[in-house]
Amino acid sequence: MTSLQEIAKQLHNRDNFLLIGHSIPDGDCIGSILGLYTGLTLINKKVTMLIHDTIPSIYDYLPNIEKVSKKLPVPGNIENIIFLDCADKGRVNPEITDNINQEATIFNIDHHASNTFFGDYNYVDIKASAAAEIIYELLVKMDIAITKTIAKPLYAGIIMDTGSFKFNNTTSKTHQITAALISAGADVAEARINLFESKPLKEVLLLGKALRNFNISENNKVAWMQLYYADIDEIGAHGLHPEGIIDYTRMIDGVEVGLVFREIEPGLIKIGFRSKRDIDVSLIAKEFGGGGHKQAAGASLEGDMQAVVSKVLELVEKEVS
What we know:
The protein has 12 helices and 12 strands. It is an alpha/beta fold. The longest helix has 16 residues, at 27-42.
């Protein structure tokens, strides 16, 4: 693995960067890209940001969010590509990965244990609570001042990937970094209002649909919700990918693993996994071609909803029994 110091050196010595985030972007992906974008532009680098999927509206308050592109720039104009918060290239839409400049130097900056080290330069810190935490450390090593414009998105990234510091990935370093970001101008009230108190109505309606399809195992250790394509279509919520709905499964007393099965296309089910204590759901997700973290992971399977649910639950219930 490349050292963070070497990554910092390489970024200083290079130019013409493309920052790429994963499909269905979350707060950490978005915050990391925005924070690094601002840092690099402060030292006069040419930088383009690319996230193929729709960015949730709760992140509209973050500086430079309007500069994130959905389209790949002319590949030959990009000399260096930085993948952020991506365990592997498969997390990025193939329309992007199949058409990027194959001669470009690839940087891979991430915190997932399942990372495949696909870059020319790889820095993967599985102890970091979020990729945004790594970007903060990288910018410090590059001697780039942490401005308010950098602090806001990095703070949002850490908040979302730690579940507001509730998850086990939160460390003393996490709190030290967030303290520095607040000192640099990240506004706690602004983040709270935008991230947790400004949800679109469709997201609340989507939660209602999920709760109507709530189930719990006989031993009360596994809880899951199902969102059918027709239900999502009824409220026009296909572009919404809320990060908090799955938490309603894990918050129940006695539940060790919570899941959400979401039919994102007819016959294509996206599965979210969450665990409360010792069960490593990333290993379960890996069995279905997915991955993630010990307590938060995901995968996708083709098939009928009930068949997919039965297949996944069979393995999950073995792990919790």
